[in-house]
Design a protein that fits this description.
Blueprint (H helix, E strand, L loop, with lengths): L2 E3 L4 H9 L6 E2 L14 H17 L5 E12 L2 E2 L6 H11 L3 E14 L2 E16 L4 H10 L19 E5 L2 H5 L3 H10 L7
Parallel strand pairs: 1-2, 1-3
Antiparallel strand pairs: 3-4, 3-5, 5-6, 6-7
């Protein structure tokens, strides 16, 4: 039975491969990811994950669909997915010397006969603390371009790893998919990775 990942994220694919779960179809959901007015970051992550899974589920007759969305926040403030150097600078200044939260919403749908038969959703939170960043560290990170297209402009697998002084919670969640929870959700819905 097909396993459909409603995301084109190389990080999510790589994470799943680490636990020998290989999606048979990659079909990123085309949705509006803008926050609603006064929407909290944890609600945004959960809502977008479900929206992605449900939208992609409409296209298939059978299988398992994984939708996920990662949001980085400082307090109630949602940090952008960086699209340029100014975004990266904005995020680094907010994160420097402070704790922040990374929320990933995950929804897994089980499809049969073109309908969602069963669904499971989870929201996972990881707390991360960055050291105080000096100007050289900020400039070096911006020049690396690692923060572009990343939630909160941080790539914990790259240069930003040296800024992290503390993590409380799932490491894979920071990268974009909480593996333990995703594995349990798939298993609970009857997914058999042996085929």
């Amino acid at each position: 039975m097909d396993l459909i990942l409603a995301s084109a994220s190389p990080s999510r694919l790589s994470l799943l491969a680490n636990i020998k779960i290989i999606p048979t179809i990659i079909d990123p959901a085309d949705i509006d990811e803008s926050p609603l007015k006064a929407e909290l970051p944890n609600h945004l992550a959960a809502r977008l994950a479900k929206l992605k899974a449900d939208k992609v589920s409409q296209k298939y007759q059978a299988g398992y669909v994984i939708g996920a969305d990662t949001v980085t926040a400082r307090g109630r403030r949602i940090l952008p997915k960086a699209i340029n150097d100014d975004d990266v600078l904005y995020c680094l200044k907010l994160l420097s010397g402070a704790r922040h939260r990374v929320y990933t919403g995950v929804t897994v749908n089980y499809l049969a006969e073109g309908k969602i038969v069963k669904s499971s959703s989870r929201l996972v939170t990881t707390i991360v603390k960055f050291k105080n960043l000096d100007q050289y560290e900020i400039d070096e990170y911006i020049a690396s371009k690692e923060g572009i297209d990343k939630s909160g402009a941080t790539n914990i697998e790259g240069l930003a790893s040296k800024f992290v002084s503390f993590i409380n919670g799932s490491y894979s969640n920071i990268i974009g998919l909480p593996l333990h929870e995703t594995y349990l959700m798939l298993k609970g819905l009857g997914f058999n990775q042996r085929g």
